[in-house]
Structure formats: C-alpha cells, structure tokens
Amino acid sequence: MPKVSDAHLQARRREILDAAATCFARDGFHRTSMQDIVRESGISAGLIYRYFAGKDDMIAAIVTEWHEHRATLIDAARGAEQAPDADRLFSVYLDLLRSVGRPETAQDLHLGLQVWAETIRTPRIRELARHGVDGPRAAAAETIRSAAQHGKLPTHLDADAFARILIAVYQGLMLQTAWDDTVDNEAFVRAVETTLTALTRR
C-alpha cells in the first residue's frame, strides 16, 4: 500500500476541521453531533476518529488555530527585525476591525461567540483561549510601551491596560455585529481610527 503523504493527511484534517467549524457555528458545540460532522464533511466516522478523539479535540484545534492566526497578524504588525511600531500595529488592528464587517467572516463571528461561551464551562478551552489572547496582548503592550518611550504615545499611558482596551473593542465589535445587523462597520472603524490618531498626534 502506498504511503499517504503528509500533505494528504493535513488536507484531510483541514476538511474535518472546516466541516466541524461549519456545524459548530451553525448549531453550537453541544447541539452538534459527530454524525452532523460526518454528514457535513462526507468523511466516515471511523476516519474522523483517526484524526480526533472527539468533538472536544476538534474544538481545541479550532480555538488554537483561530488565535494563532490573530497572533501572526500582531507579530507581522510589530515587525520581526524592526523596532516595535505603533503605527503599523494600529494599521493592522484597524484592518482586523474592518474584517469583522465582511460577509465572509460571519461564520467566524458565530464560532467566536461559541468559543467564548465554552470558556465558561470547559477549563481546557478557557486555558487555550486565555493563552491565545495573552500572547498578542503582551506583544501589543510591548509595542505601545516602546512607542510611549519614544514619544509617539503619551508617556503616562498604561500599555497593558491600553492593549486590553484594544482587545475589548475588537471583541465588542464581534459581539455587536453577530446579533445586530444595523452595525455600521465603516463608521465604527472610523471612530476608532480617529481616537488612535488623536493619541499619536497629540
């Protein structure tokens, strides 16, 4: 029997996770059954169990990927070989806010809310979510702190608290967009941009 390539294994794993994410976003974690994921993916239950022990493992994998993607954006904004740059960080942050209003992110919004709800009841998911937020928050705080030291932001600005505010604004926009279709994403982002600009051009 020919050896299955790593690329094939990763592609099949991706298919399973994408199907699970679709089901979770539509029906919630606890209303989704393994049979639902089998139907959505078109992959047999036996094969799915070769990749994941059950729904909890799928949820954990999705949460990890979700936060890793956002951490990558923050790292790219900070610059791997350059001094931390608040302007670049804020630019990427505003793009992240804009992405919340795009129709293609609707599933991500619903999935995100499911994850937040699950953190209350499942310690493993709470730990993964906290880790996923704490890393980007610390990176953003470092950039903000450096900008303040170089006179680009107010020196009295609490970097960690301000990083938490940025995260809270993003999470709040996700929540409002998920249940209120009257949210004007462009106006929201403009208001945030005006606030950030006022800080950097004081």
TrEMBL record:
Which range is the signal sequence, renumbered to this chain? none
Please give the Gene3D superfamilies that the UniProt record associates with this protein.
Homeodomain-like, Tetracycline Repressor, domain 2
Q: Which GO terms describe its molecular function?
A: DNA binding
Residue ranges constituting the HTH tetR-type domain according to the UniProt record: 10-70
Enumerate the InterPro entries for this protein.
BetI_C, DNA-bd_HTH_TetR-type_CS, Homeodomain-like_sf, HTH_TetR, Tet_transcr_reg_TetR-rel_C_sf
Which sections of the sequence are annotated for DNA binding?
33-52
Alphabetically list the UniProt keywords.
DNA-binding, Repressor, Transcription, Transcription regulation
**Keyword Ribosomal protein appears in the UniProt entry:** no
Q: Which PROSITE patterns match?
A: HTH_TETR_1, HTH_TETR_2
UniProt-listed Pfam families: TetR_C_6 (PF13977), TetR_N (PF00440)
Q: What is this protein called?
A: TetR/AcrR family transcriptional regulator
Task: Please report the organism this UniProt entry assigns to the protein.
Answer: Streptomyces mobaraensis
